[in-house]
Structure formats: C-alpha cells, structure tokens
Protein: Glucose 1-dehydrogenase
Organism: Candidatus Atribacter allofermentans
Amino acid sequence: MRKAKDRMTNIEGQLVGKKALITGAGVGIGKAIALRFAQEGAGVAVHVNRSLENGLQVVQEITHNKGKAILVQGDLTKKQEIEAIVRKATSELGNIDILVYNSGVGTQHSPDMVHTITEEDWDTVLSVNLKAFVFLSQMLLPAMMQAGKGSIITISSIRGLLGNPVLASYCASKGGMVLLTKQMALDYAKYNIRVNCICPGFIDTEMFRFYLGKQSDPEASRRVFAGMAAMNRIGRPEEIAASAVFFASDVSSFVTGVALPVDGGYTANGVREIQ
C-alpha cells in the first residue's frame, strides 16, 4: 500500500512552477484542463471570449482550492485583443510556459458544404479555429525561444483526422490545425519547444449536450454516438485534460509533433460518417 501511495503522490504537482494560458476555458474541455493544470501546480490564465461569468467561476474554483488563476477576456479574431490577452497574462503570471489552444467554432448554418457555405461563415470558422492560433503563438513564441523551453498544445478533433459530410469548413480548419502542429514541432524543436495536438472524439460537454437536445430523441442519439467508439461510451472532459497534462509536463519531454486521438477507439476502426 505504501508504494502505491508514493506513486500517487508523485503524480501530483507535475506542473509546479509553470504558467499556462488556456483559451476557451470557461466551459467543457477548456474548463477541465484549467482545473487539472491548477491541481498540478500551474498558474493558469483562464481565457474566455464573452462568457465572463463562466470564466470567473473557473477562477474562483481554482483559487478556492488554493491554486493560482487569473481571468483574461478577448476576441481571438482581433489581433489587438490577442495582444491585450498576452499582456495581461504575462504581467500577472510571468512568461507563459504552456499554451493550450482550445477555442473552436462551427458554422451557424447547415449544411456546411463547399457549394453552399457563405464567405462570412468560412472566414469565421477558419479565423477562430486556425488563424487566431497562429497569431497567439506568434506573440508567445519569442519568450519561449529565449527561455529555451515551452509546450504548445492544440485541441483539434477527430474531424481533423477523418472527413465528415456537411462539415467542410470545420474539417478544413481542424485538419489544418493537425498539420500546422506537426510543422511547428519541426520549426521549434531546436528551441526545446514541443508542439502537440489532441484530437477528441465525442465528449460530454455543454456543446455536445446542446447538440443532442436538438435531436428528436436525444437519448437515442447519445447511444448512437457512444456506439461509434470501440469503448461504447462518450468521453469525459477530464480525460482530455489528463492527456493535456501529459503533453504539458516534463514526462513527455521527448514527445513532439504528435496528433493524439482521445476518442475511445473511434478512429481505430476507420472512416465513419455522421449524417
């Protein structure tokens, strides 16, 4: 029992002394990552776009448990607001060691097909899901390069690995994120900056539950999605957070350029379509 307890103790505190900026951290996967990073000892900048109340609740939960967290707000499609986010995070926490880019959107109109999508919808999806990450990284990389260390973690999707009908802009943006992750891993390895990607499957988030709620039979739809995974269930945000801790910590010091599916075996079984 003593050895088992010691092993558990060693797991705690994997991110002590590190500072992390997590985008889209007010709910769902981003929230789970923020809470877990704080539990592991990191100082966390909790980013939200508009949902201040959600962000404040995450910060309060972290500080209530004796962790360090600040709230940063801004529209990631606007470069000036990205600059303000970085200024506040670095002024209050210090140089950022870990970036988790978790922001993402889909189109507001269906179907998302090349012959039907509007220029506005295409630009919005690509701007939030990909372009904003480029310019946020651009502002954080110089300090990481000077320090000779850093970890950048992107949250893509199984839709960045496999196509899906009527999700043209979403698949394009998430696939672009996967390949950009690999490309950046090559450029910045010499600075000891690791760049990795997590590709979640179907995860029990507010967004997923909202989608189910629009179906004629939400419970039946949930069972269908669960059945697409080899493990026959929906994933939990905390399971994505655990993978993010691995990539952020020194345990993965020789890991870079990886696109990791956390999907219960969904992608292991080849191409599956969601109509």
In short: Confidence is low (pLDDT under 50) at residues 1-11. The chain is about 50% helix and 15% strand. The first strand starts at residue 19 and ends at 22. Residues 24 and 30 are 5 Å apart (CA to CA).
